[in-house]
Amino acid sequence: ATLAGLLTTIDISIVNVAFPSMRRDLGATEAGLSWVLSGYSIAAGAFLMLAGRLADQKGRRRLFMIGVTVFVAGSFLSGMAGTTEWLIAARVLQGLGGSILGPSSLAMILPEFPGERRSMVIGIWGASAALGAALGPSIGALLIDATSWRWIFFVNVPVGALILVLTPRF
Fold this sequence. Notes:
Distance between the termini: 10 Å
Number of helices: 9
Largest sheet: none
Order of helices and strands: HHHHHHHHH
Shape: globular
Strand content: under 5%
Mean pLDDT: 92
Low-confidence stretches: none
Number of strands: 0
């Protein structure tokens, strides 16, 4: 659950370093590139409360798995994008997955700890998000230098698959 939180926040900050490459490859405008960021953030924020409610109603683990699947699908489609519009749409899908991951991951791990330790758990969970925001640009730069901007999205696919395999076991 913490790995998923880390993954979603890395994905917010990792995109910033890819803008020059995206602009060149996709012929993107500044406005289009701003929507690559904004589309993700708006989708993630708009569905956050609903995702938390659905996690309580439909099952936290179940919704968490759906969130990982949607996030990974959005990541894959982002990496495959041939146009700015496609990339924006894929980022909206990715943001929707991220909005599901946030509340469902925290709701999934909190009951595993006694009340007196929950503040520590929330702190660790929150720190993983902060770490993701800090690591995103560096990881993005490394991936872009070694491969292409598309890999800032493709890298989420094996990590998401690992999360999907491990979640039912833990």
